[in-house]
Structures are given as structure tokens and as C-alpha cells.
Methylthioadenosine nucleosidase /adenosylhomocysteine nucleosidase (Bradyrhizobium erythrophlei), 309 residues
Amino acid sequence: MRYRLGLIVGFTVAFGGTLLSTISLSHAGDKIDTTSRTAVISGFKPEWTELRAALKNRKSRIVNGVEYVTGETEGQPVLLLLSGISMVNAAMTTQFAFDHFRVSRIIFSGVAGGLNPDLEIADVVVPEYWSEYLEAVFARNVGSDYSLPKFAKPAQTENFGMIFPQPVEIAQAPLDPEDRVWFPVDPKLMALVKTVSSRVQLNRCTTDRKCVDRQPRIIIGGNGVSGQAFVDNSVFRDYVYKAFHADAVDQESAAIAHVAYANKIPFVAVRSLSDLAGGEPGHSSFDDFKDLAAANSVLLVRALLKALP
């Protein structure tokens, strides 16, 4: 492969014979790989271990500390990457993938906290809209009320104490920035999820036989929200569900939806519930069921990949 000046490549051989490249880039336009691929992104390791293990013709490249893995799975050329937890990590690694690989669409596979009281651990949700719900003004206390600065946008949903949600600005020069609260997923990908969901049997138990009370379900449509906070608080959970009518909360999906929207790349996120964001009695179920939730997300993602045209 030919690279322009400014791209430095060092090769080593990883265990198992997988070729591992360590790459330094100084030009935004340098392409590491020119094959058109579906990017499958996960937030942390339990969410991508199975997907990575299933890859054929696997080739890993480490760029700026992030591993980007190309190969084929379910008959599709894919790019796998671990975004890292948080909105900033998700946005950064997604934009890098767009700049240096040929990404035709994005599928996020991961876990989330459940907000909707009708949903339970290990259910899989595929929201139609995502919001950066912690984009907000922390308002000034004025007596028993709050005062917003003049630049603040009119409230589009109720506040949580001093926290007043705000739309996020989307640059669209030479036009004025666009104010946006909700980012839609790609309708074609959403339709394909609906088609394949009936073929997917989700897992009810972990490998060490920790089981949820009922057979997990796939919920398609509705809203999801993302922000920098891991939510494990029942009062705030109830607020977010009421204010945003959201089924799930995580720390990455809306950031990736934002970057995909700006780059006009199709996007969908598949999230399985590892916990109830503070709605469980006693303690968070995250540590007990994160692996089960991650596996259930992967089941639907692989079915979706197999059905792609």
C-alpha cells in the first residue's frame, strides 16, 4: 500500500499470527484501507470480544493508541473498533475512522442502562432517535427558582433542578449553525433490523448460569439518550424517562450519531440492557449482567450484518 509523506508505519507480528501495524498519521486525508466497510463500534471490551473473534482475514492496526481491526464477518467487509467509554472518545474515534477508512455505514454494538420501567435486564433496544441529553445550562439560583442566561434556548423539556437541557449546535457553514435535540438513525438500517429481529433468539443466562427472570425481548423504535455520566440513580432515571421518553441511556451512541449526521453516514445503535440505571433494588446489576447484555447485542448485530445487501 502506498502512503503519502507524513504516514509512518511500523509492523510487528501479534500472537496467533495476526499482523499488527502501529501507524502514525500527520495528514487528515491519508487512507489506511481503501475497501468499503461497515464500521462496527463498541464502547468497551466485553462488547467487541465476540465480534473480533469471529473475523476472518483479520488485520489489526493501532493508531494513536486505538486498535482498528479489518476483516470479514457474516460475509461482510467490516471495520471493528473499540471507541472507549465516553462521548469524547466515541466522537474522536468515529471521526478518525471516517477520515482514514472507507466507512459505508456504522453499527454500534453495546450495553446500556434501562430507563423504561417496562424493560428488563438483557432486553435489546434499537432506538430510532438519539439525544445528547446532558447538553445543558446549569442555571443560577434566584431565591427558590432558577434564572437562565439570555443566550439559553427555550426549554424543550422539563429541567432537573438547576440542569436545563439545551439543543446542540451543528456547524453547517456558510449557513448558520443548526440547533438539534434528536439525531435520527438510518431508516434503511432500521427497516432491516425489523426484518431480522424475528430470527434472533436472545440469551437468558450467563455462562455461569446467572439468569434473568424472563426471556429477553428486542424493542425497535423509540428514543435513546447519551451523556458523560454513568447513571445509577433512581430519581434521575425517572426524570430522564419522563422528560425524554427514552428507553435507554449510555455514554456513546448520541455522540456517534452526531458525527454520522455531520458526515452523512448511515448509523444505527443496538444496545442491550446491562442494568436499570439505578432502578434495581439493592445494587447495580451492571457487573453481573454486562457480559450477557453484550452477547445479546452481538446476536442482533451479526444477524443485521448477515442481511446487509
Observations:
- The chain has one domain: 8-307.
- Residues 1-19 have pLDDT under 50 and may be disordered.
